[in-house]
Write a structure and sequence with these properties.
This protein has a single domain, classed as Nuclear Transport Factor 2, Chain: A. The protein has 4 helices and 6 strands, in the order ααββαββββα. Strands 2-1-6-5-4-3 form a 6-stranded mixed beta sheet. A hairpin with a 2-residue loop joins β5 and β6.
């Protein structure tokens, strides 16, 4: 096993893979205990519980995810991603274009910002509740 630490991009990718699989414990393990999560249309929270409080209700009706990475760029501790988050609900797949910015320090994600259209996200949530 290599002693080389994972790159910020590799840490973010592992986080998204766990999140995509809805393995929230594994996903949270990649976040700093005091992570700052900004869901741009909704506001900023801190810590693991804050992340779960924001995302839990959104992911409750989802049966399966497919996060398609369209573009990625990393400079030092900062990772930029453009992705298409695909969510399977009772009535089929819904898609949400998302741009994200992450900061990784000491092997943990310390800052995470998601940028997306609130109306599109609300339509996904509504589709899951019908």
């Amino acid at each position: 096993m290599s002693d080389t630490p994972l790159t910020p991009l590799a840490i973010v990718t592992a986080f998204l893979e766990a999140f995509e699989a809805m393995d929230f414990d594994a996903a949270l393990a990649h976040l700093d205990a005091d992570v700052e999560y900004t869901n741009v249309p909704l506001g900023t929270v801190r810590g693991h519980q804050g992340v779960l409080d924001v995302l839990g209700p959104f992911f409750t009706p989802i049966h399966e995810n497919d996060f398609v990475l369209l573009r990625e760029s990393a400079t030092g501790p900062v990772v930029f991603l453009e992705r298409l988050d695909r969510h399977r609900l009772d009535h089929g797949w819904r898609e949400l274009p998302v741009n994200s910015v992450f900061e990784v320090h000491n092997g943990k994600i310390t800052v995470w910002r998601d940028y997306f259209d609130r109306v599109t996200a609300a339509a996904i949530h509504q589709a899951g509740n019908t």
